């Protein structure tokens, strides 16, 4: 167990480094948002929770993985490349005219299941997939990472109602609860809490977890496998910009881009961890 | 047999509702292929009860939440299903436009958005229930095929076409029951496959009226005398606004000296603007268009009255010809 956690931790450090290395030359991208979801992604992909087949993004029997907070969809590109969905060289071409990888995820990118960036649509799409899987008695699941800011969108609650009504216990939504939106802290600007109670009142099975603790995430994902007729919600409490000291929990880093000095510093910090 | 005028039709007439015709076809489709789903945003039809009874898992009630209905439809389509998302025209278009754009159009999935009561179809409900801009806003989205049924026959054939082609489409169907247009004895020229994009249902020599849906009936009703007059008037049922059969239209329209577009949409987003962007520029000077003004209509009096009051008086247009 400990070896597995160590392995995922190493992968998390590697992913942080790869994201920063990929994004810096492009001069565009949301680094801080991608940093807060790192452990969620690595635990799913390298912890044996997500079913996929290397080198085959269209594998029929796969689980679906979506990053609904499209601005940080690029945070999964190094993993998708690592599992052979596209060549590693593409990471170097991120955001460039001859590359296939863009800031926001879209369906043309191998391994990106749906176009995101316009918030709150991926959960609905996942609900459709889960309805189909359940009807056809397929065990495949959908894991969707959403931002806490996405909870402001009305349509997310339409989906919450729908998934609960149709007992979609194969749908697992993970809220990257970094508590930040573009203008500041969610609780200072427009209160979201009690977020867990809101979801559970819609009939969801809710868990709260430290989103950077691999051990906690593992235990959450295990529990989320339960077939109890309820869709699952995991509130992963995270820190925006995690791993880069000057970005951690600082609002302006949602859409600011590091200058030359900051870029060097960021790269140094994440490299030291690998 | 003399054709009845639309104005004489009572609400629950002997004619079959187009939505029932479509739903029956979908039911037949589900019988053969269990991967066809019918999603509704709290909108029914008599024929739907049978489909629900026979295929309860294939009819998904989404509640009054069009945004979620569209995204769920997209998800089902990504699993290889053919999906129908059914609701009132204004609510399955403008109300969930962002979902249509990203979850359907950008991913080009086999979903048919069915809009009941386009134009002023829900007269006198007021602007909340009118879809007088649906043509233009959907035409702005890539990959969408836009189809409008004018009667039972076109509705049946177009539904089959949608089922067979698995394309992304917006299907406009009127809420009321109309008599057939396409089983009239004097219609000899139409393409029964409905693949051409339009039908020149009456061939004329001088003036051609382009219209669709409900207005096809109105134009036929009021133009009886003109049609007899040395084949003066031609009528085109433009049942496919997107993609437009530009080549075919150019060929037909060049025969005419005058072209009249009659539309139940605001001019900025209606048939005129769609046609103007695509057809041969040499035809543009021949075109005169009648459509709704760019304002909200808060009036009672019924569909025909509202049309008349807002610059689309078919009677007066035909008279002026």
Can you lay out the helices and strands and say which pair or pack?
The complex is a heterodimer of chains A (274) and B (321).
Chain A: H1 2-26, H2 31-36, H3 38-46, E1 64-67, H4 77-82, H5 89-92, H6 122-135, E2 142-147, H7 154-165, E3 171-177, E4 180-181, E5 184-185, H8 186-189, H9 195-201, E6 205-210, H10 214-223, E7 232-237, H11 260-273
Parallel strand pairs in A: 1-2, 2-3, 3-7, 6-7
Antiparallel strand pairs in A: 4-5
Helix pairs in contact in A: 1-3, 1-11, 3-10, 6-7
Chain B: H1 18-32, E1 36-40, H2 46-54, E2 59-61, H3 66-78, E3 82-88, H4 89-93, H5 97-104, E4 111-116, H6 134-139, E5 145-148, H7 152-165, E6 169-173, E7 199-202, E8 207-211, H8 214-222, H9 224-228, E9 233-237, E10 240-242, H10 246-253, E11 258-266, H11 271-278, E12 287-292, H12 303-309, H13 314-320
Parallel strand pairs in B: 1-2, 1-3, 3-4, 4-6, 5-6, 8-9, 8-11, 11-12
Antiparallel strand pairs in B: 5-10, 7-9
Helix pairs in contact in B: 1-2, 1-7, 3-5
Description:
The complex is a heterodimer of chains A (274) and B (321). Chain A is an alpha/beta fold and 274 residues long. Chain A has one domain: Thiamin diphosphate (ThDP)-binding fold, Pyr/PP domains (Rossmann fold). Chain A is 41% helix and 12% strand. In chain A, the strands form two sheets. Chain A has a five-stranded parallel β-sheet with strand order 1-2-3-7-6, with helices on both faces. A two-stranded antiparallel sheet of chain A has the order 4-5. In chain A, helix 1 crosses helix 3, helix 3 (38-46) crosses helix 10 and helix 6 (122-135) packs parallel to helix 7 (154-165). Chain B is of the alpha/beta class. Chain B is globular and about 55 Å long. The two termini of chain B are 26 Å apart. The interface between A and B is medium-sized, with 29 and 25 residues.
């Amino acid at each position: 167990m400990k070896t597995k956690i160590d392995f995922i931790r190493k992968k998390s450090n590697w992913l942080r480094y790869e994201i920063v290395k990929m994004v810096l030359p492009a001069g565009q991208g949301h680094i801080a948002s991608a940093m807060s979801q790192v452990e969620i992604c690595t635990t799913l992909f390298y912890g044996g929770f997500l079913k996929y087949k290397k080198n085959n993004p269209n594998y029929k029997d796969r689980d679906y993985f979506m990053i609904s907070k499209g601005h940080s969809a690029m945070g999964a590109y190094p993993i998708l490349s690592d599992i052979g969905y596209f060549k590693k060289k593409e990471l170097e071409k991120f955001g460039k005219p001859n590359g296939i990888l863009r800031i926001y995820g879209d369906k043309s990118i191998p391994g990106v299941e749906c176009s995101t960036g316009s918030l709150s649509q991926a959960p609905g799409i996942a609900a459709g997939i889960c309805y189909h899987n359940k009807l056809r008695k397929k065990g495949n699941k959908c894991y969707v990472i959403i931002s806490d800011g996405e909870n402001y969108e009305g349509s997310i609650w339409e989906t919450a109602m729908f998934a609960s009504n149709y007992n979609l216990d194969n749908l697992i939504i993970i809220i990257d609860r970094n508590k930040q939106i573009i203008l500041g802290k969610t609780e200072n600007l427009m209160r979201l809490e009690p977020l867990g109670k809101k979801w559970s009142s819609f009939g969801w099975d809710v868990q709260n977890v430290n989103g950077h603790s691999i051990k906690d995430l593992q235990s959450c994902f295990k529990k989320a496998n339960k077939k109890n007729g309820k869709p699952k919600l995991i509130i992963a409490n995270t820190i925006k910009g995690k791993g880069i000291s000057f970005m951690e929990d600082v609002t302006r880093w949602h859409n600011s881009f590091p200058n030359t000095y900051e870029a060097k510093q960021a790269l140094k910090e994440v490299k030291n961890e690998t | 047999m003399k054709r009845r005028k639309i104005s004489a039709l009572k609400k629950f007439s002997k004619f079959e509702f187009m939505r029932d015709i479509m739903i029956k076809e979908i039911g037949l489709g589900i019988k053969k292929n269990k991967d066809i789903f019918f999603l509704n945003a709290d909108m029914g039809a008599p024929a739907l009860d049978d489909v629900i009874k026979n295929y309860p898992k294939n009819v998904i009630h989404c509640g009054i939440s069009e945004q979620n209905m569209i995204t769920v439809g997209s998800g089902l389509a990504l699993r290889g299903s053919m999906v129908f998302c059914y609701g009132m025209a204004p609510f399955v278009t403008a109300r969930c436009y962002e979902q249509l754009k990203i979850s359907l159009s950008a991913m080009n999935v086999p979903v048919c958005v069915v809009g009941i009561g386009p134009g002023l179809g829900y007269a006198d409900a007021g602007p909340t229930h009118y879809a007088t801009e649906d043509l233009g806003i959907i035409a702005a989205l890539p990959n969408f095929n836009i189809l409008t049924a004018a009667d039972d026959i076109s509705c049946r054939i177009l539904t089959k076409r949608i089922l067979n082609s698995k394309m992304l489409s917006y299907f406009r169907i009127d809420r009321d029951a109309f008599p057939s247009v396409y089983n009239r004895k004097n219609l000899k020229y139409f393409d029964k496959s409905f693949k051409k994009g339009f039908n020149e249902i009456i061939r004329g020599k001088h003036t051609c009226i382009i219209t669709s849906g409900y207005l096809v009936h109105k134009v036929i009703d009021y133009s009886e005398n003109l049609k007899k007059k040395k084949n003066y008037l031609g009528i085109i049922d433009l049942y496919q606004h997107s993609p437009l059969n530009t080549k075919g239209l150019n060929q037909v329209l060049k025969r005419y000296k005058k072209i009249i577009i009659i539309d139940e949409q605001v001019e900025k987003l209606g048939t005129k603007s769609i046609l103007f962007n695509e057809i041969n520029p040499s035809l543009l000077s021949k075109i005169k268009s009648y459509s709704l003004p760019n304002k909200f209509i808060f009036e009672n009096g019924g569909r025909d009255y509202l049309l008349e009051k807002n610059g689309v008086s078919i009677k007066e247009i035909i008279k002026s010809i």
